[in-house]
Each structure stands twice: as C-alpha cells, then as structure tokens.
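Could you help me review a protein record that somebody else here produced? My question to you is simply how this chain folds and whether the tokens agree. Thanks in advance; the entry in question is below:
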Amino acid sequence: MNNLSRKKGFFFVTTGAICWGMGGTVAQKLFQEFEISVDWLVSVRLLIAGFLLLMISFMKSNRSQVFGVWKNRKSAFQLVVFGIVGMLAVQYTYMTSIKHGNAAVATLLQYLSPVMIIIYLLLRKQSIFTRQDVITVLLALGGCFFLLTNGSISQLSVPVSAAVWGVFSGVAAAFYTLYAVPLIKKYSSLVIVGWSMVIGGSVMSFIHPPWQLEMSSLSPITYVYVLFIIIFGTMFAFWFYVESLHSLLPKETSLLGSLEPLAAVFTTVVWLKEPFGFYQWMGTACIIGLVLLLTRTKQASSETSLSV
C-alpha cells in the first residue's frame, strides 16, 4: 500500500466525514423547525442519492458492474444484506437519534463503532490488542460518558431514546464498515453504495412512501436543506467513506471518520445555537482525540481482509 494511495484514502474519509456531520445538523433543523418525518427523509435521501450514484457509475464506463453485481448469487445476497442491515440501519438509527436529541450527540455516539470493530477483530483473532487499542477504547468510552451525563451520573444530558438510538447507530456503523470490504474488492464502490441506498430506500418506502408528503407546504429553504442532505450529507458522504476502504484499514477508516463529530458539533453549536456543557466538550475532545491518535500512527504494513 503506497503513500499516495493512503493520502487519497485520508482525503476521501475526511471529506465524507465532514459532509456526513454537517448533513446531520441540517437534518436536525428540518426535524425541529419544519417537522419533517424521519421515515420520509430516510426513504427520500436514500432513493435519490442511490439512483444518482448509479447514474454516475454508468457514465464512468462501469456499465457492466452496475448490473453485473446481481449476476453472482453470493454477491447479490451480500448486497441486499448490506443495503438493509448496513445502509438503512445506519441511516435510520442515526436520524432517529437526532430527532430525539441533537446532531452533535447523535454523531458522537455513533463513534462507539471503532470500539466495536476492535472487539470484533479480537474475537475473530484477526487482530491483537495493542496499547493504541487500549487508549482508543478508553477515549471512546470516556467521551461517551461525558457526552451523555455532562458530568452528572444522576441524569442524562439527552433523552434516553436519543442515547439508545445513538448506540444502535454505532453498532450499525461497525457492521457497515466491516461488511463493505469484500464487496468493494470485487465491485466499484459507486455501484455498491448506490445499490445499497436504493435497496434501503425501497425497503423504507414500504413504511413511509416518499410521495406521502404535502410538497406544496414546504418552503424554498426546506428544499435547499433536503437537497443538501441528499447530495452532500448522503451521496458524497457514503461514497467517499466506502471509497476510502480501498486504501485504508477498516479500523483506520472508522477512526478517521471521527471528523464527523467535529463538523456536527461545530455546526450544531454555532449554527443552531445548541447549548453544550463543559463536560460535553470534554467528551467531544476525547472522541476527536481518536483522530489525532490515528494520524500519528505509522503507515500500516498491509491491509487486513475481513468478512462477516
């Protein structure tokens, strides 16, 4: 794995992470001020972003792969699982956590996923527990503790429902990161992410069809917010994240994606004027510290092959 390839991977994962974090804050704005349904937003963003990615892939001469993934039974089955248990689960749990709490805490809670990946790799005996892993686990757990309690063990700083959905989002993100690896080794990341979004959006449409919303009641700024979430907070965010797995280890991608909380916290506090306590800032610092820890790590010697 050469240095140029790793730099490309770092660019993709950091750009995608920032887009995802900002998209969460914009979604919070939609939920709080415009009373947009979580179910509707998830189905719409997945379907439109998915079709756009497949169109881009088709125009980039990946035409054979766009439909070729369905010709292999094993790959087709993996893609359906990835679309529902990975893509849809990450989207829905994250958005629901924002709905019940706020984008900053929801995004930060999602970053229990590196700890879950580390534990999974240890259980599968595909990794050894290093000193860095110990620090990573302590930072993640300490950060989540401060975020949820704001220093007081007698009560949570966010509703219980927001915390539960946030933890579920971390589980889904860990699965998403690990399960994507064998698929993108055989097919274009554009194809995999695009189809997984279409699959997830189609399943969600049975719960809340995209057309079941009074569009005339939406203001022009609402359309701008929705488009931002679809294009930047969904399409680019997920495409770049999965693309980074070509150059980085899943554990590295998951940890570097911690720039998402930085973007989410910054936009939530500055743009939405959401109050953030001293201990919550400490928790934020702990989780952002994961990024600094990883970027100081020497280049990995080889990429680990993973499957679930």
